[in-house]
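Q: What structure does this chain adopt?
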Amino acid sequence: MSRMDRYQKIHKESQRAEQKNNFSVRKEVNQPKDHYQDYQADHYDEDDYQTPQKKRRFGFRRNKEKRPKRKSSFKKKIFKFLLLFILIEVASFFVGKVQAELDSSIPQQEVMTFNGVSSGTGNKNILLLGSDSREGETARADTIMVLNIDSGKPKLASFMRDTYVNIPGYGYDKINSAYAYGGADLLRQTLELNFGITCRYYAIVDFKTFEKAIDAIFSSGVKIDAEKDLDLDGVFINQGIQKMDGHTLLQYARFRMDEEGDFGRVRRQQQVMSAIFGQMKNPLVLLRLPYAAGKVWGYTATDLPMTHMVVNSLHVAKGVSGIERLSIPVEGSWQFGEYDVGSVLDIDEEMNRQAAQAFFNQ
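A:
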C-alpha cells in the first residue's frame, strides 16, 4: 500500500469516528478563548500542577501572593535609640549615686524612722527639710517645706521656723524645735496636729548637698532675679537678673538679716524653688538631671522611692511653668509674741489650719 493510500484510509476512519461520536477537532480548536479556559477549569485542578512550568503548560495564571509590607526600619532605629538613651540615663543616675556615697567631704546622713501616711484623698506629700548640721551642735531644720507632686501641678508650702505650735509630748515651742527633739517623724506629727497636713515621705538635704546638687544640674548657674543688693558673708549679690552657682544661691535663700526677717527668707526660698523648677525645661539640664538626681539621692537621707518621681514625672514637668506656693502663717493670721523660748510668731491656729487644708485639698 502506497503512502497516499495509507493517508486516505486514516482520513476516512477519522471522519467515521467524528460522525459516530459527534466530535470535531476543528470546532474545538476554533472555540473562543474563554470557553477553552472554562473547559480547563472544569477538567483540571490547579493544585495538581504545582510547578510553574506545568501551570504555564495548562494555561493557569500564577496568582501573585500579597507579601506583607516590611516594617519601617526608621521606626526600629528610633526604638533602639530611645532604648539606648534610657539605659544611659539610668546608668548616669547610679554613677552619680555611687559617687555621692563615696564622697567623704560630706557626712552621710542616717536614714530615720518615719511613719508616714497618705492623705485622706490619697495624696503622698513629701516633707522636705533643709538641715544645717554643724560639728558639735544638734542639727537644726532651718527649712521646712511640704511638697506635693501627685495631684496635678506641684504645690509647695513653707513653714516659718519661728511659728509657735504644739509639739506632741513637748508642749508649745518653735516648729523647728520638733526636729531637734525627735527628728523628721516628730515634725511630721507636729504638722498633722496643728495644720491637718499628712506626709507620706521625707527628705533631708544638708546645705552642702544643696550646693553640689545645684552645680551638678546647672553647670552655668541658676537664673534668678535678686530682690536687692546683699552682702552675705563675703558673697556679694547685686539686685537684678543674674546667674548664681550653688553656694551663692544658698546664701541668697538663707539670708534673713533685714527688716523682713524670716518672712523675706521664706519668700526667697520659694523663689529659688520656682527658678529651679522653671529652668529644668532646658534640654541640656534634662540630660544632666539623672546624674544630678543620683548624687542628691546619694547625699540625702530619704525614704522617697524613685518610682514615685518617675510615675509623677508628668506632674513634675508642669512645675516648669511655675508651682503653686503657700507660706504659713498666712497673711493676717499672726503676731509677734514673747515666751520662754524667745521671740515667736503667735498664730491663729484655726485660720492657718483651714488655709493649709484648702491648699492641699485635704
